[in-house]
Amino acid sequence: MRNALLRIRGVITRGAITRGAIACALLLVATSSHAAEVSGSGLTLGPADSKNVLILHASNSVQVFKGVLEDFSQLNPDVRLEYTELSTQQLYGDTIDRAQANPTALHGPDLIISSAMDLQTKLVNDGYARVHVSPETRALPAWANWRDEVFSIGTDPIVMVYNTGKLAATRVPHTRRELLSLLQAPDQPLANSISTYDVQGSGIGYLAATQDTRLDSMAGALLAAFGRNGVTIHESTEDALDKLERGDVTLAYNLLESYTRHRIDQGAPLAIIYPQDYTLMLSRSAIIPKQAPRADLGARLLDYLLSPRGQEMLAKQSGMRRVNASVVPAAGVRPMALGVGLLVYLDPLKKRHFLDLWRAAILPPGGSARPADPAALPR
């Protein structure tokens, strides 16, 4: 900064720039310490010498979350924000590892945001989160706030998506029963052309599949029909959308609306189906860890995300739905409530039993379903 000021002073002495240009140069110097520093999986905002350092770990991609965090930084110019993007499994595991290594130390992130709302709920249930009460958290619907320790900051419908060039509009299924009928049709329109999550490697996929099992008596029959039709498995919505856009598959089951909507806006020949029997709403959920060094700053960011301004920014930047406006027209919306109901299938015995049944239905005898890109990370 000192060198920059000397250069400006020299220019002024020579009379080579206008008064307006001087003002612009001084503004650039004054704000240089607040410039965003973006790395592959991280983002840093705010003054380097700030004593108020806020550490955020989340599964949201840097590109999607950058605009939201920049807005928060503009409102809080005294805060240095350090953001790291991690997988849902790492967010969960790292929290436990820190507590086991030194349970009394204040270290690690001040706020954790994850799309694996079951894992976030388990962290709360096992005592790894702090209580936070504010006007913003009190305004949340009951399903979006559990024990004042885990909170939904936005929702994402879990939908079906199809390639409009490969499936006639008259055959598009609008319920799971209609999808089952299409899978059983004599002409086999979806044979070797349907995709679903690999629940063995995807936190979102496992959560969605187990919720289907809880809610739908036909879930087992649908899985069996997937297997008979030579289902392709994927580990991320982005991977499934790539396959759909290329025409490798015709229809994909249980994808995130926000990523799909972005592809459609870019011109992909895709269409979204909101299942009319029920449409699950996944939450991006946030906790303030018990070991947060600056829990006050974590709370400040959380309240911003839940505020009207923060909700608007999240909707614009990420495509998520506002918590208080999570409605899909003409569909039976079922927000997945934060709470103990999400913990049922995290029990080791139940999880092993569910995965055994899933493998028996999906994977051909002595083989495996066609896998997704192994480098794709569940979000």
UniProtKB/TrEMBL annotation:
Kindly list the GO CC terms recorded for this protein.
outer membrane-bounded periplasmic space
What SUPFAM superfamilies does the entry give?
A: Periplasmic binding protein-like II (SSF53850)
Q: Cross-referenced Pfam families, in alphabetical order?
A: SBP_bac_11
Q: Per the record's keyword annotation, is Signal included, yes or no? A: yes
**According to the lineage, what is the superkingdom?**
Bacteria
Signal sequence bounds? 1-35
User: What's in the keyword line of the UniProt record?
Assistant: Signal
Task: Give the matching Gene3D superfamilies.
Answer: Periplasmic binding protein-like II
Q: What is this protein called?
A: ABC transporter substrate-binding protein
